[in-house]
TrEMBL record:
Superkingdom of the organism of origin: Bacteria
Lineage per the UniProt record: Bacteria, Pseudomonadati, Pseudomonadota, Alphaproteobacteria, Sphingomonadales
Keyword entries, A-Z: Cell membrane, Membrane, Transmembrane, Transmembrane helix, Transport
Pfam families according to UniProt: MatE (PF01554)
Keyword 4Fe-4S part of the UniProt annotation: no
Keyword Transport set for record: yes
TM stretches of this protein: 43-69, 75-99, 120-143, 163-184, 196-215, 221-242, 263-283, 295-317, 338-358, 378-399, 411-429, 441-459
GO molecular function, one term: antiporter activity
InterPro entries assigned: MATE_fam (IPR002528), MdtK-like (IPR048279), Membrane_Transporter-Flippase (IPR052031)
Main localization category: membrane
The protein, known as: MATE family efflux transporter
Amino acid sequence: MAKRYRAIGSLQIASSGQNSGNRIKTIATQPAIFLTGSPMRHITVMTLTASVGLLTMFIVDFVDLLYIAQLDDSALTAAMGFAATILFFGTAFNIGLMIATSALASRRIGRGEAGYARRYLTNILVLSMMLIIPLATIFFVFAPQILDLAGASGTAKDAAIGYIRIVSPFMPFSVAAMVCSGFLRAHGAAARAMNVTLSMGITNAVLDPIFIFGLDLGVNGAAMATSCAAMVSAVVAIFPIFKQYGGFEKFRSDWFNEDIKPIFAILLPAILTNVATPVGGFISYRYIAGYSDEVVAAFAVMGRIVPVAFCLLFSLSGAIGPIIGQNFGALQFDRIRLTIKQAMGFALGYTLLIWPVLYLFNDPISDLFNLEAQGRHLFWLFAVVLTPLFFFNGMLFIANAACNNLERPRWSMMMNWARNTIGLIPFLWLGDKLYGLDGVVIGPGIGGILFGIIGYVVARNLVTRQEVEHHDPNAEKPVITPF
């Protein structure tokens, strides 16, 4: 079946009337690489390369804030927080568009329809500009009013307005970089996709100290560095698409109207899925806000450590999405099952590797951030008790990727919102009532266990359901069993 799809795809490319023989050769030589070979190898390569760029961004964000903190003005540090909170909504759109691109394009690539994948890329880029330009305009014009709603005032508000108004005009570059990165991942071009986020992080890291300290621009300098990084990443993302994958299909309104429904079917749930996590974080902070400053400081340290320590788990869902998508396009359901099973093993192995590291270094990390008394105890609790439970978060990430790439993105959205509401609030409340502050820390981890298992069961049943619906002639009788 997969061979037949690839053959059809080659015929379509050869007969599509492309105006360059070299271009035909370039496109035809880009196979759907995830249809063969070890799924674990694909998972490892895609996850490691994705994590390099992601880790760079996490570290740069940390250093960015650290640079502003060196200006010794807490209002400027607060301004960075307010601006990041507002601009996150643009990031949610970017991630949703990237997921839609990766899911739709990988499925077509798996069927051997490279031209259709490029058509999706063109239409999603057009749609992204239609969405992000009005959003950027709203941010630019109404930044003061939005920050009033967020509770900002004084110097923090003024500095945040400046940051938002410098960054918002460059949001189209960021979304173009993310969409093209999703297309590269759909092709399995892990290193090229990694270079997109890596270039953004490196550019930011180089320009931050120059603009913030060298030119004495402060928060505005940080915004300028971020804007330059967005432009660089867009160039790095677009260049290989022209060089290796035949560029973009010509825009046609009838194709756009035809594709808009499947695009939005993935896009809207993906955006809402990404908004759920900060909502859960806000709820958690409401519970600890009444405790001492040292407790809040410990939670802040955890918030900085988690993205760095568990970067591979955060990268995993984006890494396995194209693998599932290509094999779904080729109707290779056994390989989808194997991919999900081996991704679970990868998540477990990585969690068991990080656990002793955080346990051994919990005292040095507490010393580095000057944690004392309750704050020090909470970080120890995080390192010893919560760290191994992150495996269940990894299970949910994998389940979300399966749903997004198996035509059920709404399931992913519902699971993520349920995890950050039903799987959070009752456990926070019960933990607080029974065990006080320790219960507030551990309670959400118990909720994570529940939804990690639910996610695994949902992913397992979804593969079987899709196998039945698509009537794969090579499939055995669909019996719902563990992977």
